[in-house]
Each structure stands twice: as structure tokens, then as C-alpha cells.
Amino acid sequence: MAKMRLLTFMGMAVEFKEISFDTMQQELQLEEDQVEAFVIDAVRTKMVYCKIDQTQRKVIVR
């Protein structure tokens, strides 16, 4: 399941440069409190480069 989520996230990152937490929750079937941890884990793989904007609740892909 983790690999499928990562692949889905990578596909989203190619298409969108900004992804809201709500979109990530829906597309990746994550709980609200799991989104940030998932993004951190994704960045650790070095397959995607992004940062978290906590105030606007979105992920910005570089």
C-alpha cells in the first residue's frame, strides 16, 4: 500500500505543483494527521522534492 501511495503522489506531483492536504487525503486515503508524515517519508526517498506549507495546508512541489 505504501508504494502505491508513493506512486500516486508522484503522479500528482508531476501534474500539480501545489497539492492541498484535502486532495492528498482523498487521493491517497490518508487520515488528516497522516499527511505530513507521508510527505516527509516521500521526501526521504529522494524520488520527489517538495515542502509543506502548514498555514495554507498544502504541499508545494519543486
Description:
The protein has a single domain, classed as Winged helix-like DNA-binding domain superfamily/Winged helix DNA-binding domain (Arc Repressor Mutant, subunit A), CATH 1.10.10.10. It contains three helices and three strands; from the N terminus they run αβααββ. It has helices at residues 2-15, 21-28, 35-44, and strands at residues 18-20, 50-53, 58-61. The chain has a three-stranded antiparallel sheet. Strand 2 and strand 3 form a beta hairpin. The model has no long low-confidence stretch (mean pLDDT 95). Pfam families: PCI. Residues 1-62 form the PCI domain. It comes from Hucho hucho.
Summary keywords:
Arc Repressor Mutant, subunit A; 62 residues; alpha+beta
Task: Report a brief summary of the structure.
It is built from three helices and three strands. It has about 60 residues and is of the alpha+beta class.
Which helices and strands occur, and which strands form pairs?
Elements: H1 2-15, E1 18-20, H2 21-28, H3 35-44, E2 50-53, E3 58-61
Antiparallel strand pairs: 1-3, 2-3
Strand and helix order: HEHHEE
Mind telling me which CATH architecture this is? Answer: Orthogonal Bundle
Largest sheet: 3 strands, antiparallel
Major sheet strand order = 1-3-2
Annotated CATH topology: Arc Repressor Mutant, subunit A
Question: What percent of residues are in strands?
Answer: 15-25%
Low-confidence stretches: none
| Structural class estimated from helices and strands | alpha+beta
Terminal Cα span: 25 Å
The CATH class designation is Mainly Alpha
Helix content: 40-55%
What's the tally of helices?
A: 3
Mean pLDDT: 95
Q: Quick one: CATH superfamily? A: Winged helix-like DNA-binding domain superfamily/Winged helix DNA-binding domain
Give a count of the beta strands, DSSP E runs of length 2 or more: 3
Integer tally of domains: 1
